[in-house]
Design brief:
By secondary structure, the protein is of the alpha/beta class. Among the domains are: 1-74, no CATH class; 188-284, Ribonuclease Inhibitor (Leucine-rich repeat, LRR (right-handed beta-alpha superhelix)), CATH 3.80.10. The protein has helices at 8-14, 24-36, 38-43, 54-60, 66-72, and strands at 46-48, 78-81, 98-100, 118-120, 138-140, 158-160, 178-180, 198-200, 218-220, 238-241, 258-261, 277-280. The chain starts with 7 loop residues before the first helix and ends with a strand.
């Protein structure tokens, strides 16, 4: 397959491998790539690099002003705006299908982004209010540490809240399909999450009761060191219990398909002979 025959979505991600920074020659090469590939030119797919690159983009795209560039995004399918320190106003980006604003630290108001399908706000630490994002399909809010209220996100399909250290109440997230809460140390009650299909609770040290999670398909409880009783988890398909130092009895886990265990306190694994994939890993 020739380069110009690839789907536009794939071509967009190929541009991630360009070294976009202060090298004007690289940017000119990137400009020629965009200009000569009809899928990209037609669908208005853009990739904006770091703040220092803005002046080169102005030159290459005909002195595009910031506001004018945002106006063009009404036709944009995918926009990757990684670590753009200059961006503060994203109100014109609400019609983008796949929007990556990872590491844009000066974004505060995301109320206009509720219709975006796939939205990456990883590391946007000045965001506090995500109440408008309940209709986003795939939402990454990892390490948005000033978010406290996620009650509006119950209909998101795939939700990453890893490293959101100030979240305490996840009772509204029971209908999320894939939920990452790893590194959320203030979560204690996960009783509402029994219908989540894929659930990551790694490094949630204050969780003690996991009896409601028996129907989760893929469950990670690694380094949840206050869990003692896993007798309700026998129907979980894939279960990670690495470095859970207070778990001693795993006799109820014989029907788990894929099981990860570690810690010297687990001595008897005779009940696990029917486990399809069993990993007994030393915990460092």
């Amino acid at each position: 397959m020739k380069l110009d025959e690839l789907p536009a979505d794939i071509l967009c991600y190929i541009t991630d491998y360009f070294e976009i920074g202060n090298d004007l020659n690289t940017l000119i090469t990137c400009h020629k790539f965009f200009r000569n590939i009809p899928q990209i030119r037609k669908k208005y797919i853009y990739r904006l690099g770091e703040y220092q690159s803005l002046k080169y983009y102005d030159m290459l795209y005909g002195k595009i002003e910031k506001t004018l560039w945002f106006e063009k995004t009404k036709y944009c399918k995918i926009a990757l705006l990684l670590e753009c320190y200059i961006i503060t106003d994203v109100s014109k980006l609400g019609n983008v299908y796949n929007l990556n604003l990872q590491g844009c630290p000066n974004i505060r108001d995301v109320s206009a982004l509720g219709n975006v399908h796939t939205l990456n706000l990883l590391g946007c630490q000045n965001i506090t209010d995500v109440s408008a994002l309940g209709k986003v399909h795939t939402l990454n809010l990892a390490y948005c540490r000033n978010i406290t209220n996620v009650s509006a996100l119950g209909n998101v399909h795939t939700l990453d809240l890893s490293g959101c250290i100030n979240i305490t109440d996840v009772s509204a997230l029971g209908n999320v399909h894939t939920l990452d809460l790893s590194g959320c140390p203030n979560i204690t009650d996960v009783s509402a999450l029994g219908k989540v299909y894929i659930l990551d609770l790694t490094f949630c040290p204050n969780i003690t009761d996991v009896s409601a999670l028996g129907n989760v398909h893929t469950l990670s409880l690694s380094r949840c060191q206050n869990i003692t009783d896993v007798s309700a988890l026998g129907n979980v398909h894939t279960l990670k219990l690495l470095c859970c130092k207070n778990i001693r009895d795993v006799s109820a886990l014989g029907n788990v398909h894929t099981l990860y265990l570690s810690h010297p306190n687990i001595t008897d694994v005779s009940a696990l002979r029917n486990v399809h994939k069993l990993f007994l890993i030393e915990c460092l």
